[in-house]
Amino acid sequence: MVRLCRICLRKYGNFVDNIRLYVRAGAGGMGLPRLGGHGGNGGDVWVVATEKMTLKRIKDKYPQKRFVADVGANSSVRSLKGERGKDKEILVPVGVTVTTDDDKIIGDLNAEGDRVMVAKGGHGGCLSSAFLPSKGQSRQIKLDLKLIADMGLVGFPNAGKSSLLTVLSSATPQIANYPFTTLKPQIGTLLYEDHKQISVADLPGLIEGAHLNKGMGHKFLKHVERTKHLLFVVDVCGFQLASQTPFRSAFETVHLLTKELELYKEELVSKPALLVVNKMDLPDAEEKLAELKEQLLNPEDLCSTSLPADMIPKSHMTFTHVVPVSAATGFGVDRLKSLIRESLEDDDTMATEAFRRERLQLLRQRSR
Question: pLDDT for 323-346, tens place per residue?
Answer without folding.
Answer: 999 999 999 999 999 999 999 998
